[in-house]
Amino acid sequence: MAHAQLLISYGQAFVAPERRQHRSSMSVRLPEAPLLKVKGGCAVISDSISRNTMAKQAGDLSVRGFLSDYYSTPEHWDTKTSATRVLRALNSWCYSQSQHVKEGSFVSSLSAMVFLGREGHLFHMGDTLVFRLRGAEFEQLTRDHVTDVGGYRYPSRALGMDGSVDIDYTHLALKQGDLFVFTTQAVRGTLMPSDYVRLIRQDASDLDAACERLANEAKQRAQERGYGGDQFCFQLLRIDELP
């Protein structure tokens, strides 16, 4: 009998006003079998503040940089060592680059999750959000690191904010059917846990469509509450089969 391997499905949706640049970035990478067995699959989301003129570059760069560097780490390094070293190096690079630009910075919040074998490894900095939906239980896996300055909430402990960085690390056992939601701070004050459960469960066979439902409902709620049509991005990832 052939051994089952890790099988993952995912979907994504982005809602953003045309005239404004994206300031969030997200990606999923599921490599071919040999690399999947050694390094696992990976989902990343990053988000920079709207006041940052280089928000789009910061978000894109952190996601692309993490994925390319993580999969280039030596095979004998474990997941925690690989991801932590990559994030520390990326943090130093972003921090040093920010010293050379006149406006804006390479600072962004980032959450990255590696799925390897029957385990999940979550690395988190700043205020991006990762939730897990298991059965009817909806749980936030990340902590919001934010500072209030003059009525505005800014991410703290974010990537590129300082020469050194504190990285939250969470180790999880995976279950078949687990759903992970990756999103950004813009969603705060729009969707309740019951909304996530309802909108995802409405039809979880098409994860792109489920993400679209989440994004559209968040946008609608934001407009009703006078937040304006801020940008929302959602990434949904489901564990279909475990080795």
Would you give an account of this structure?
The protein is α+β, with helices and mostly antiparallel strands and 243 residues long. The chain has a domain of 166 residues: PPM-type phosphatase domain (Phosphatase 2c, domain 1). The protein is 29% helix and 31% strand. The protein has 5 helices and 12 strands. The strands form 3 sheets. A 5-stranded antiparallel sheet has the order 1-12-11-6-7. A hairpin with a 2-residue loop joins strand 8 and strand 9. Helix 2 runs antiparallel to helix 3 and helix 4 runs antiparallel to helix 5. It is globular, with a radius of gyration of 18 Å. The model has no long low-confidence stretch (mean pLDDT 90).
Brief sketch in words of this structure:
This protein is of the alpha+beta class and 243 residues long.
Notable traits:
243 residues, alpha+beta, Phosphatase 2c, domain 1, 5-stranded antiparallel sheet, 5 helices, 12 strands, globular
**Helicity level:** 25-40%
Strand order of the largest sheet: 1-12-11-6-7
CATH homologous group name of the domain at 21-186: PPM-type phosphatase domain
Shape: globular
User: What CATH architecture of the domain at 21-186 would you give?
Assistant: 4-Layer Sandwich
Q: What's the number of helices?
A: 5
Q: Mean pLDDT, as a whole number? A: 90
The CATH class of the domain at 21-186, by name, is Alpha Beta
Strand content range? 25-35%
**Helix/strand structural class:** alpha+beta
Question: Mind describing the biggest β-sheet?
Answer: 5 strands, antiparallel
End-to-end distance: 13 Å
Return the string of H and E elements.
Answer: EEHEHHEEEEEEEEHHE
Model regions low in confidence, pLDDT < 50 over at least 5 residues: none
Q: Give me the Rg, rounded.
A: 18 Å
CATH topology-level fold name of the domain at 21-186: Phosphatase 2c, domain 1
